[in-house]
Amino acid sequence: MSGVIVSMRRTLLSCTSLARNGLLGGALAALLPAAPAEAADLVDTLSIMLDFNRQELAVLATALALLGFSVVAAILLMRTRVRTANNEARLHARIGELQLQADRFGALLFAEPQILISWPAGDNRAQISGDISMVLPRDSSPQRVIAFGTWLPPEPALQMDHAVDALRDRGDGFQLTLTTAHGHTLEAIGRAIGGQAIVRIRELSGLRRDLAETNLRYKALSDETEMLRGFAAAAPWPIWAKSENGALTYANPAYVRATEAASITDAQERRLELLDSADRTAMDRGLKEAAGFTSRLPIVIGGERRMYDVRAVNVGSGSVGVAIDASEADALSSALVRMAEAHRRTLDQLSSGVAVFDGHRRLAFYNDSYRRLWDLDRTFLDADPDDSSVLDQLRAARKLPEQPDFRAWKAKLHEAYRAVETAKDTWYLPDGRALSVVTTPNPEGGVTYLFDDVTESLELARRFDGMIRVQRETLDSLAEGVAVFGSNGKAQLFNPAFVRMWKLSSDAMRDEPHIQTVEGWCHQLFDDPVVWRQIREAITSIENRADVPLKLERKDGSVLDGMIRPLHDGATMLTFQDITDTENVERALRERNEALEAADQMKVDFVHHVSYELRSPLTTIIGFAHFLSDPSTGPLTPKQAEYLDYVTKSTNALLALTNNILDLATIDAGAMKLELGPVDVSKTIELAAEGIQDRLATDRIRLKVEIAPDVGSFIGDEKRVVQVLYNLLANAVGFSPQDSTVGISARRTERSVVFTVTDSGPGIPADMKDKVFNWFESRSQGSRHRGAGLGLSLVRSFVELHGGKVRVDSIVGRGTVVICDFPTDQAAHRDAAE
């Protein structure tokens, strides 16, 4: 750089005519900050040599500034290149050091078997490194490590999942000790480091495992200690602990309050004691001799003397104690003693024999009635004998019931000492007496025996039960309903027939309801207020008591014949007999006779009028219509021929309807007679099909006929069978859509010939299947069919008249199938005709 400045100096000396003042020196000093000494010398030289005018100086200054800028830029570029080369060398050296350090850390990190799992921030893909054979087979995928359920039991796996979720979501660290499904103990540590969630899993062995187990035991012991301290602090009883020399080492707040100390430290410093000196001496002696002390002692707390149950035991090198308030229990015990004495005095006055045996089964108390009942010596009883001795002495005197196994009987009796409930029994003594024996377990132990002589009561009850049983059996066997009401109007007695007759509840009648209540229950069957008032007055009245007969016609159509009969003890007996059958038979016979006569006359009149008054004019009209249509009578205009055709069709339809009605009326009147003979099945189907050919052609419907080869013939009325098949085919064609198929088939079974007619019409709804065979029941169901609704009625009537059956199978939208069974047995025709 010094050589450059010397060159510049020479150039400036050769250009002395370019500048004259010191401005150029300041410019050069600013442009050459890296060489201030050389620049100063250059300025001094220029100041001496230059003597130019101002214009020449300005030109020279500009040239020098450009030259200086180029020099400075070259210098700065050179410095930058040198600095960059130095930085690159230092960076390569640093990278090498970091690589060595990373290798050293990796070797140190994986010096022992462990697994590292890391999740970068915002990335759900885990990066796994380390020895996965700790938890999975060597050939397993590393990603299976984060499926904790594959190598951990369910509960630790769930715990690990929750800990990892908390670490990744909130950065919560954790440290867990886990046991794998194969029994290995692992430690899992999770931390959030550098924006990553990192989990480290390694096996605990040797010292680390022992340390972990020690820490767990220490924590459990610490938790237990804190729990016990909390319990002692919350307990309302004074609790204390003393060292081996008797010094107070711990006391709970209740102890501090009881000794009126300011704090536990105050109680320790002042050596405040809960017990007086004599009681403390007794407690110390008990702890030394028996390692424990229990006693009920008086303690003065808050100026009040109360009884406490004091318990102390040796623990380690010291002792602990507790004082529980027993004042209430002591008072209750005293009251119980006084109450027991009062009970003893009361029991001694009873006529029943009472004996109380204590928990050791020795006689603790007996009253005078007990001694007289068994005729025992007072001296023997005052000696407090045991229960077995008393029973043995009574058995020796033959005063106990005879038993085949006395030992087993006595053992069963003594089960009362272990029972929790009172037991009752009856002893039948050899002298004929009967004793009621009640054994009651005592709360404090032992049993109380209560003996009562019930000989006379049992005899009276036996007689009364016998009378009631006879009375009850007599009433229960009656077909008549019987109920007895007392003078207070309440039911005292009733039999099952009465309950069934009025549809009452036996349990409700056993509650002795009043006659008004019974009346309310019976209103559903009979609600005549006059009759019920008569019954109420007869039951509750005092005078004018006499028998009152009744006849009740109830809402359900039944008829009852009743009687109100007063009894000698003031009660009233009601008796009811169902005479509905007798009334109904008489009424039914009378009504049936009248109905039969009227129906017979109506049918005869109907058949007579229709036969002569309706068929005759129809026949005349049909005859003249045929006569007019004959060419011999003269030509007709097309319009006249069309009208005549309408008249012919209408009169034929009306005649067919009239014939159907006449046939139904004749069948219903029982006047229809079948003209039986051989019926050729094939010919019958052919004749029936001829009648619907024009309708088949008009509606473009195809008839499919299927006749089994072995169908043959059967005995029946051929004309009526043809009529049946025609009506079925006409009905099927009327309900079938155009361009469809109607089928008819015939087959022979073991006992009948079966005709089946099928169509593809709209079908019959389920609620209409039972009505299609009724008179005048006709519904189009959306089809072209129109009719009076007599065709299927005739079908069923004629088939049943042959002794056969008709059934209909139909699915809405899929057509209808009608099946007719004509029996081949001649007996069936005879039965049907009859």
Structural description of this entry:
The protein contains 26 helices and 27 strands. The chain has 834 residues and is of the alpha+beta class. The chain folds into six domains: 45-104; 112-205, Beta-Lactamase (2-Layer Sandwich), CATH 3.30.450; 240-349, Beta-Lactamase (2-Layer Sandwich), CATH 3.30.450; 351-460, 2-Layer Sandwich (Beta-Lactamase), CATH 3.30.450; 478-637 and 658-668, Beta-Lactamase (2-Layer Sandwich), CATH 3.30.450; 673-829, Histidine kinase-like ATPase, C-terminal domain (Heat Shock Protein 90). The strands form six sheets. A five-stranded antiparallel β-sheet has the order 2-1-5-4-3, with helices on one face. Strands 7-6-10-9-8 form a five-stranded antiparallel β-sheet, sandwiched between helices. α21 crosses α25, α22 crosses α24 and α24 (718-735) runs antiparallel to α25 (791-801).
